[in-house]
Design goal:
Length: 124
């Protein structure tokens, strides 16, 4: 796999979930079997906005030619997704969300592995 392919996968996931949580946080929360307070809806929207930022970053990162810039993006996304693995597993095991939460664990694991590969194994 090429790094640009991983950037595109990240872009698609981030833009879909980002728009979902920004525009309809209650619906997205319902998918996971949780009900959000008004404050939770606000935090969900902020989460969505952050995902949109990641989407823009990976979309623009595809066109970069400077290896140091690309590695900076890869490192940031590796760290973010690795922490996402831990947080999502802890909350899944605690029963915070329904079985759909395992898909979140899987997404974070796959992205962390992908960005870890490009960070530590195959540098461009």
């Amino acid at each position: 796999m090429k790094l640009n392919t991983l950037f595109m996968i990240n872009f698609i996931l981030a833009i879909l979930f980002g728009l979902g949580f920004t525009l309809m946080p209650a619906t997205m929360s319902d998918f996971y079997g949780t009900a959000l307070t008004p404050a939770g809806l606000y935090v969900g929207q902020l989460f969505g906005l952050s995902l949109i930022g990641f989407a823009v970053l990976t979309w623009l990162g595809r066109g970069l030619t400077d290896p140091a810039s690309r590695q900076a993006i890869v490192t940031a996304l590796f760290v973010s997704n690795s922490i996402g693995v831990v947080v999502s597993i802890v909350n899944q095991l605690a029963g915070v969300v329904n079985a759909l939460g395992w898909s979140t664990v899987a997404i974070y694991v796959l992205l962390a592995l992908g960005f870890g590969y490009f960070r530590f194994v195959k540098t461009e």
